[in-house]
Amino acid sequence: MIRGAIVVLAVTLLAGSVRADDLTAEQHYQNGQDAYHAGRYKEAISEWEASYALSREPDLLFDLGQAARLDEDCALALRYYGEYVRQPSPGDHTQQAVDFVIEMQRCVDMKLTAKALAEVKPAQPKLVTPAPPTHPGRGKRVTGVLLGVGGGVLIAAGVGLGVAAARAADQVRDACAVSCDWSVESARDAEGRRDEKLSWAFYGVGAAAAIAGGVVYWLGWRDEDAAPRMMVAPAGGGVSAVASWRF
Known about the structure:
It contains 7 helices and 2 strands; from the N terminus they run αααααααββ. By secondary structure, the chain is mostly helical.
């Protein structure tokens, strides 16, 4: 009887512990819901992460992606959407999550591109004493060259992504020429579509940078060509000086 009572007590305590954990997960989830609907997305992410750690409820990954996306944290949203898509069993929001994966990847890439373009801007020199520049258009021409090179790099990256997208499309088409397991090929198809969209984004940014570089270079050339010039030449009984400029 004593042994039976101990077993019953242990089972009761274990069941109570499991129910307490479930209640804790549910409480975190509800707190996250309240924060999410109030627009406090960072707080919602914190509460749902705690709930997921306790319950491992797959749909929480999608909810976390939504909160991170609305909080404009593209990298974190990409992580949670990706984890949701990679679940062994597809969830109710799988296709929507795949679309958000593509969108968040583009967001991450665009932020990295903007950061790279910001880093190639030449630093403005600090002059101790003001003095007329010897070559007034050189700075603009250097900037134009840098922008042109940056645009060329982005266009080249776009070409690479376009080639990758075409290769992925060919692989999916060949694999599904007769029949295929779309659950296997869908990820490759989604990756190809993502690369295609990114390639166009890189084309656009690269072309804009190249055009801007050309315009800035031309402005620098115009400033250089418009600078006044003086020519001194020997003449009978002395020298002659001729000043010229363009406008």
